[in-house]
Amino acid sequence: MWPIQQFIFEETGEADILRFCTPAHGPASPPNARWSEYELRSAEALDTPYVPKNSLKGSEARAKDLYGTAATYYFPTGVSHAILGGILAAFDARDTVLVGRNIHRSVLAALAITGARILWMDPGSLWFQFRAEHLKDAINKSGKISGVVLTNPSYEGHLSDIEGIFEICLSHDIKLLIDESLGSHWMMSPLLPKSAVHVGADLVFHSLHKKVGALVPAALLHVPRRSRLSSSQVERHVDLVRSTSPSNLVLLSTEWAIQSICPNPSHLPDLIQNCRRLTETLVPHQAPDVLSIDIHASDPMVVHLLPRNKDPVSLAEALYEVGLDYEHADRRGIVYFVSPWMDPPNISFLMRILLERLAMPSRGRPCKANPFRYPMPRMALDFWTSIRSERSRVCSLKHALGSVSCTLIADCPPGIPLLSPGEIISESHLEILGERNVEILDRGATR
User: Fold this and answer.
1) What is the DSSP string of 120-185?
2) In terms of CB atoms within 10 Å, which of 199, 235, 243, 251 comes out highest?
3) CA distance readout (Å), 108 to 155, 183, 250
4) What is the total count of domains within the chain?
5) Model confidence pLDDT, tens digit, residues 39-74
């Protein structure tokens, strides 16, 4: 077999694994359940003719009504393209934009294309929970700010005060864009956090495969009703970056995923209740001297655990061996994503196995006293100047300390830049990234 075929064959053969990770589609999710109606014999016929524009616009109009937005646009090529279209509509070279330290790498690329000045914002907390006062402080320090781009929820499922931040943005005439890729399921129940679509933002981005269950590239760009950007202005930029030959299968799964949001599954309240019970039970097994996780400011369908005296990676791998797949594991802890289509008893099974393993003696190195923390970038040059420099050379990180990076390195998942073009390379990068080669700007290069 060729490598991709071999990988897919092996992955689809793991039928006994409980998947607490992306993508959310499985046998019980509506998008996957409906594929059986068409079967593989229909795939070629479905994906050959292009969906007529009037059909696409009609579907987007129905999605707009369901979400309660001024406009909703389909992006069958991924949320990165939705972010590009939205940022092009919102900003230009005259703007200065604050970005959260945990933004996706696509935000940097999109802002670089606009020519906007990028300023980093860090709430000072491990889990990127931004508050209104963080934005006030950044405005006071930075002067004139045109826009803010934040990720909510964080990768670990923790929430920022988007409502309070939006009110500050309104009072200062600042545009607010929210990457809500990991909150696309929040519309499914009032027991889940409120979406920025309704709380307040100028643009909101959703990735439908992560939690709702569409095919992997399915994404949405929402223009909320309170947005200060007109739908016509956004649509002009959407048309610039959307593919002219989208996958019909991805568009179809987008439609099915949106339909599955309302009415939501009847078991969802029980599932959410089981998730909350799981998190509350596991709190005593976290390390209170190292971090504090506010379970009341979190998405209940994300289980984020930093175990006491256990190495998170070793624990996650041990749990995988007994049939529990995880979303991510490193010094930040273990992250499990719960799909809305999962059976509630599966959460009880996860809790039982976790508690058993947490009570066992540790066999690996314990969690460090100082957990992983993203370094705040110290920027020497702008993104484009450094990434397009002709005067650069490749060397190891160890020999690049103090130099300016021409390389973009992102932790994927979830695509958070660990090293950005224009950033000064420090000891913290060496600690996080280890010995790998990077391209650096030769001293004196200014192009």
Assistant:
1) EE--SSTT----HHHHHHHHHHH----EEEEESS-TTSB---HHHHHHHHHHTT-EEEEE-GGGTT
2) 251
3) 17, 21, 26
4) 3
5) 445 565 566 667 788 888 999 999 999 999 999 999
